[in-house]
Amino acid sequence: MDKVVYYERVSTEEKDQVLALERQTNELEEYINSQIEWDLVDKYVDKGKSGTSEYGRKQYQRLFEDLETDKFNIVVIKDMSRLNRDTLNWYKFIDRLVKNEKELFFYDDKTYYRPDDALLIGVRALIAAQFK
Fold first, then answer.
1. Among residues 96, 128, 85, 107, which one has the least CA distance to residue 31?
2. Which of 71, 69, 50 is nearest to 60 (CA)?
3. What is the DSSP secondary-structure string of 41-58?
4. Which residues of the chain are under the pLDDT cut of 70?
5. Fewer CB within 10 Å, N side or C side of the chain?
6. In what order do the strands lie in the sheet with 103-106?
7. Which pLDDT does position 65 carry in this prediction?
8. pLDDT tens across 13-31, in order?
9. Distance CA 29, CA 74 (A)
10. Closest to 51 in 3D by CA, of 105, 124, 108, 110
11. 24: Cβ–Cβ under 8 A, 6 or more apart, which residues?
12. Tell me, what's the pLDDT at 67?
């Protein structure tokens, strides 16, 4: 059984974004719970926090630290922009994820991050950084 966590973030606490976050949470949890081999063990959610920096994102920082534990082996995110909009922080996260033999699952695409995807994902990170 794979131990799974998810990370979500919205950049403001405006009503529309909070409602979108609630919808995303419901979708993610429904999807995770439908996977027979997955066990949801924790969630990390930052409300009203920009993805352009890791500072002030307590749940992101907790997730980043927990990558070095045995608490889980799969991190689920909607898409890369929810995790980071800063290219350097993206690569720091991926480096720690890979070193600790964790997997990253993109819910929107229903795919796992693969090291072979590093160049393509890097380009996406640069694009995401433009939409702060």
1. 107
2. 50
3. EEEEEEES--TT-STT-H
4. 12, 117-132
5. N
6. 38-47, 2-10, 74-77, 103-106, 111-112
7. 98
8. 777 777 888 988 999 999 9
9. 14
10. 124
11. 8, 78
12. 98
